[in-house]
Amino acid sequence: MKSFYHYLMKYRQSKAKDSIAAFANDAFLDHSFPKSSTNYDQLSRYLEMNGHYLESMSIFDDAWELYRSEEDKRIN
Length: 76
What we know:
- The chain is mainly α.
- The chain has one domain (4-75).
- It has helices spanning 4-8, 19-29, 40-50, 57-75.
- The model has no long low-confidence stretch (mean pLDDT 95).
- InterPro entries: UPF0346, YozE_SAM-like, YozE_SAM-like_sf.
- Residues 3-68 form the YozE SAM-like domain.
- Pfam families: YozE_SAM_like.
- This is UPF0346 protein ACFFIX_23515.
- It comes from Metabacillus herbersteinensis.
């Protein structure tokens, strides 16, 4: 299973066109982001304390759902 960060980086763009792309760009610049994590609770806690760049935690939740959906398809 690839990490959430690794998955999120596929949305990175030079000019963010949506909130998930903006999240990916900001996470890339966040050198403390838990890059190897696949754990929702760990990532959520980190972002709640350090994710000042997120407009809303719902952006993370939306990205997480995309991640889980794609990982589930990949595994099955």
